[in-house]
Amino acid sequence: MKLHDRCQKVTGMIRVIRDAGIYPYFRPISRSWGTEVECAGKRLVMIGSNDYLGLSHDARVKEASAQAIYRMGTGPGGSRFLSGNMVLHQTLEERLAAFVGKKRAVLHVTGFSTNLGALGCLLTPSDYVLCDRENHASIFAGLGGTKRMGTFAHNDAPSAARKIASEMGKPDFDGQVLLITEGIFSMSGDVAVMDELAELKKQYPDMLLYLDDAHGLGVLGANGRGTAEHFGVTEQTDFIMGTFSKAFASIGGFVASDHTDVLDYIQHQSRTQIFSAALPAACTTAALTCIDILEAEPERVERLRANTRRMRQGYKDIGLRFSESIAPIIPITIGSDEKAFMFAQELFERGIFALPAIYPAVPRGQALIRTACMSTHEDRQMDFVLEVMDEMARKYRIRIQDQDGDQP
Ligand code: PMP
């Protein structure tokens, strides 16, 4: 198919949605207060952000980042390998490693580039990579050159065990198995069965376990140390990857491990590390300050949990459909893509910012509105969201008790 025809397939669809006045994406936000934003002249309650601890607007994080700019400038001036390496980077790596309970950590400029660069280093053509079917796009992107790859049924350790046994049973197999999962799945909010996955290491001691904890960091475990900590499997988890674009109020990513030789190798071989500029001082400092705050104020994580419990109970009382979890990500099942677009548009008009996820991000006919709690959400904001959701759930007939209808 020619380039323009290929583009037309996508842009034609977007035009139809735009013309219907229900296109929800790329909304330009002109001002943010964290739990509220200004968009198209309206002030809205934000329930779609990954800034789970609300630290993007913490005065200490902002001030420390501003000071870092005065001291180090706005841009890094080069890759870390060459002229962009800062004491701040090394300090952050040490703090991150200690925070997640590993010996060493290596930074990258985003979470996506961490997975891309680190996974690219970990695998040889003879290794077997096994992914949860719902793993994030950056993980699959990082496996580009892999020859032997399989997926297991979402959050299903026995399914993973069967795949490993079958691959290892092949006469030509002489590589290593790398199993990759997310900690909290970004769309569904499901928490990985890390205890069961770690248990597989008893049967397959050579298996390496890689945890993408983008959404678990700052959220699960004592003081928000993440999903491995939550399950008490930090030791069995070979690689813990995280990003600063969620609870750490910044951008940037890292991978941490006790396999310090492998991390040295990643630092010198990761293409997204070597051939990309270093993390700017302001972003590095924001993440460092978040660790300080998390260590000093564990009640922030507790407050996030309390808000999450409250919203989950509120949604349940309304009769909304969503999967059980302890995660702050609560995706509400709507139905068709069109209905989800209309629902999101009306939420916007009523003062709520939340976005739909449609096919192929979710199965066909199961489009959802992804909502997410923050520890800084106030009671009045949560009450407002629940009140609007209640009215709209009846109107759009999306409650469990309305199962038969599909018309707004
Ligand atoms: N992994 C997961 C599970 C994610 O959800 C995301 C971002 N949504 C990433 C990696 C990429 O992180 P970043 O936004 O920092 O590039």
Describe this structure in words.
With 408 residues, this protein is an alpha/beta fold. The chain folds into 2 domains: 19-48 and 298-402, Aspartate Aminotransferase, domain 1 (Alpha-Beta Complex); 59-296, Aspartate Aminotransferase, domain 2, CATH 3.40.640. 43% of the residues lie in helices and 16% in strands. It contains 15 helices and 14 strands. The protein has helices at 3-19, 59-72, 80-84, 87-100, 111-122, 137-142, 157-168, 194-203, 227-231, 260-269, 271-274, 281-296, 299-318, 337-349, 379-396, and strands at 29-32, 36-39, 42-46, 104-108, 128-132, 148-152, 177-182, 208-212, 239-243, 253-257, 329-335, 352-353, 355-357, 367-372. A 7-stranded mixed sheet has the order 4-10-9-8-7-5-6, with helices on both faces. A 4-stranded mixed sheet has the order 1-2-3-12. A 3-stranded antiparallel sheet has the order 11-14-13, covered by helices on one side. Strand 2 and strand 3 (42-46) form a beta hairpin. It is globular. It binds 4'-deoxy-4'-aminopyridoxal-5'-phosphate (PMP). Residues 110-112, 115, 136, 138, 182, 186, 212, 214-215, 243, 245, 251, 253 line the site of 4'-deoxy-4'-aminopyridoxal-5'-phosphate (PMP).
